[in-house]
Design goal:
This protein is 69% helix and 1% strand. The chain is mainly α.
């Protein structure tokens, strides 16, 4: 911009010097000062226009990120409907209360300490874990005024934290005490999720960086760091591994596994509700993945939306075909979970994969989720909605797939094995942290107060005895 003004000034002076007669030179030289002042005013106007354009871009990005956050917020309704539909009618109110509480209780916990632990100045510098503090101490500008960019970021992160928490609900559905679940919901959003998030995403706010962000596998300028663009592992697997720990400690539902080794299918009460929940989640994922750009510049969100949709479609198709082959009929529940598996898997690599890569990632996820569900049944771990298979197993697959399909660093594109190693380290750390801490916590809670409802309550349903209400009351 400064070079442009110099060129304009030189041209004007050149024109004035050579285009005027000698007798006019004296008069025009007196006007040069006026012309220079006018040029300065014009330059100032251009600079102000540049500032206004930057402000408009920033505000557009804030609006886009907030809209994306609102879509992710709406995903909570999708989780509630999927989980309620996949479980029995006598526990529907309990499921709805848990999902609603994840959003509300979790938001307070994340505001109190979770956000600062995840993104604040670190206690363990270079490793992770920020100093606990209220969120606004990181969000406000130095003069104490609100920084709209930071508040936008906080809104987006709040709904991500709620997503991680609510996955646990599905894995432990139909036999867990509500008060105990509330305690765990607070702990996962205040500590478990944020601490791992500080390992992998601390640098997003620019105040610190976690060790997974700086692994530098391979060394040098081209060293590879852990990549999880929108949270296949950071959000989904962390919630799922916590849910797996809870499912193990609380034990299977009554009658699920027979003494002779047979697995008794406990069918959900409303597939229409479950299907609508999946549609809501699919819709919300267009905020989850594209919204993680936090920007509309360069149109990257459009490419991410496309690969997200294609992976989900491939996942659903793969699951449907496999159930048709295994059970001689296309099974609705597993097909719906296949779509979700594709969505979870594409969440980590979605910023830099081709459409073909996305289809392959989703297809593998759709097959993997069914294999995983059958395997968990085989080892007698009861996951009523398939949450661990969808979010844990397929989240891990999606994170690993970055090391294979990333267009810049993936093994299949000549990037070497370093990225895959970095991804494997991140997946392993997430499992050890989330599963280990959650198992210990559930074990302690079980010893202190018990985490499972009584046999009578489980048979009658949690709605009446835990909440004094029914999802489908019969008029008398």
């Amino acid at each position: 911009m400064n070079l442009l003004w110099k060129q304009i000034t030189i041209l004007l002076l050149f024109g004035c010097f050579f285009g005027l007669s000698s007798e006019e030179t004296s008069k025009q030289s007196m006007d040069l000062e006026t012309l220079t002042k006018e040029l300065q005013v014009l330059k100032q106007g251009f600079e102000e226009s540049k500032a206004e354009i930057k402000k408009a871009k920033d505000e557009a990005n804030w609006v886009w990120t907030c809209i994306a956050a609102f879509l992710v917020f709406f995903m909570q309704a999708g989780f509630a409907y999927v989980e309620a539909g996949f479980t029995r009618a006598k526990n529907a109110v309990n499921i709805l209360m848990k999902n609603f509480s994840d959003l509300t209780v979790g938001a307070i916990a994340f505001w109190l300490v979770g956000f600062s632990i995840m993104f604040g100045p670190q206690i363990l510098i270079g490793l992770g874990v920020g100093a606990p503090n209220l969120a606004e101490n990181l969000l406000n500008a130095e003069d104490g005024m609100m920084d709209p960019g930071n508040y936008t970021f906080f809104m987006f992160q709040i709904v991500f934290a709620a997503t991680a928490a609510t996955i646990v609900s599905g894995a432990m559905a139909e036999r867990t005490k509500f008060p105990v679940y509330l305690v765990f919901s607070v702990i996962i959003t205040a500590f478990i999720y944020p601490i791992f998030g500080s390992f992998a995403w601390a640098g997003l706010l620019g105040k610190s960086s976690g060790f997974l962000e700086t692994l530098n596998i391979g060394g040098g300028e081209n060293g590879r760091n852990f990549l999880d663009f929108a949270g296949s592992t950071v959000v989904h697997s962390v919630g799922a591994w916590a849910g797996l720990a809870g499912a193990i400690v609380v034990g299977p539902r009554l009658g699920k596994f027979q003494p002779d080794g047979r697995v008794y299918p406990i069918l959900g009460h409303n597939m229409s509700m479950a299907a609508l929940g999946v549609f809501i989640l699919w819709f919300g994922w267009f905020g989850f993945n594209p919204g993680s750009t936090t920007s509309i510049e360069d149109g990257a969100f459009a490419r991410i939306a496309v690969v997200t949709h294609m992976a989900a479609s491939a996942g659903a198709l793969g699951a449907m075909v496999l159930t048709w082959f295994l059970f001689k009929k296309p099974e609705i529940g597993l097909t719906l979970n296949g779509g979700l598996a594709g969505l979870v898997a594409i969440t980590a690599p979605c910023d830099n994969v081709s459409i073909l890569g996305a289809v392959l990632i989703g297809l593998v996820a759709g097959i993997l989720v069914i294999v995983s569900v059958l395997l968990f049944d085989k080892v007698k771990i009861d996951d009523p909605v398939g949450a661990v298979s969808v979010h844990g197993v397929c989240g891990a697959w999606g994170t690993l797939s970055v090391g294979l399909f990333n267009l810049d660093t993936g093994l299949f594109y000549g990037g070497g094995i370093e990225q895959l190693i970095a991804q494997a380290i991140g997946v392993a750390v997430a499992f050890v942290w989330a599963f280990g801490v959650s198992f210990l916590l559930f074990y302690i809670l079980n010893k202190l107060v018990g985490i499972r409802v009584s046999e009578e309550e489980e048979l009658l349903g949690l709605d009446i005895l835990e909440h004094g209400n029914e999802a489908y009351p019969v008029s008398k």
